[in-house]
Every structure is written in C-alpha cells, then in structure tokens.
C-alpha cells in the first residue's frame, strides 16, 4: 500500500514539474479514452483521480492565493498600525522633548528663585529698612542744621575778619601819617635845639666874663 502511494506521488510529480506533469498525464488519459479500442475502466478511474487531484490542487492554490491576499491585507494593516505607532511615538518624543525643555526651564527658574530668596533673606526686613531710613533722614536733617550753623559762624567770622582788615588798614594808614608827621617835624626840632645850645653858650660866656670882672 505504501509503495502504491509512493508510486502515485512519483507519477503525479513526474520529474518535479508539478502541475504540468499532471496535466500531461490527464491529457494522455483523455486521448486513450477518446479511442474506443483503448478505453478501459482503469484509465477512466485514473483520469478521474487526476482530475480530482488537479481540482484539489486548484482549490489549494486558490486557498493559498486567498490566504496570501489575507496575509497581504493583514501586513498592510499591520504596516498602517506600525506607521501610526511610529507617528504616535514621534509625537510622544516631540512632547517629551517639549516637556524636558519645560522641566529644564522650571528647574532654572527654581534655581533663580532660590537665589533671589537667599538674597532677600540676606537683606534686612522692611520695618528695619524703614527705621534705618528714618534714622538717616533725621541724621540728614541734623547735618543740614549743623551745616547752617557752621555757615552762619563762618559768615560771622568773615564779617569780623573784614572789620579787622578795615581796622588794620586804618591803623596802618594812621601809622603812615604819624611817620610822615614825625619825619617833617624832626628838622625843626634839631634847629630849635641848636639855637638853645647857642643861647646857653652865650650865657655861659657872659657869666664867665662877669666872674673875671669881679675878680
């Protein structure tokens, strides 16, 4: 039985040409059946088997073609799904990049905020700043009053100095006038002193002559 099956397979496959070999065998059987002298039941059964085999092969090929079409459609649908998933993945990647950029910006802003908070904490409070400002304003008013007092004193001293300069100028003028008067009066005094000396000499001579006369 097994040998018969192998023989049928070899006869059907022939030299490996497949369906063409079967068609050739079927064509030979049909030729024999058309000839009345060579008609036999075995050839008819053989022809029917070949026709059934070819029909089964055609059905298989049709099923294979339909299955191939279905697989092609499935592959196309799968390719569409893959393309959609790729597009979705790209959108997710773009969104992830945007989220990453936003996260970096938030992180940068947080660092700057923390730095500003540290700087603000290092600065004095508003109440302390207001108190220092009031103290500075009071000190400024005090300094302005002191400046006005110093300017008043300086103006008074300038007036005193101006008056002293006037007095010194008048005193120098007075001294110059006295020097001029003294220089003009000096020759007159010398002449008067000389005349007084001559008078004394004359009186002394008279006294000596009188003394001699008395002797």
TrEMBL record:
Q: Which residues cross the membrane?
A: none
Specify the superkingdom. Eukaryota
Residue spans with biased composition (Basic and acidic residues)? 190-215
Name the InterPro entries for this protein. THOC7/Mft1
Give the span(s) annotated as Disordered. 179-215
Q: Which residues form a coiled coil?
A: 126-153
**Keywords, in A-Z order:** Coiled coil, Nucleus
Question: Which GO biological process categories is it annotated with?
Answer: mRNA processing
Q: Is-annotated flag, keyword Nucleus?
A: yes
Which is an annotated Pfam family here? THOC7
Coarse class of the primary localization is nucleus
Under the cellular component aspect of Gene Ontology, which terms does the record hold? Answer: THO complex part of transcription export complex
> Where does the UniProt annotation locate this protein?
Nucleus
Presence of the UniProt keyword Coiled coil in the record? yes
Quote the protein name from its UniProt record.
Answer: Tho complex subunit 7
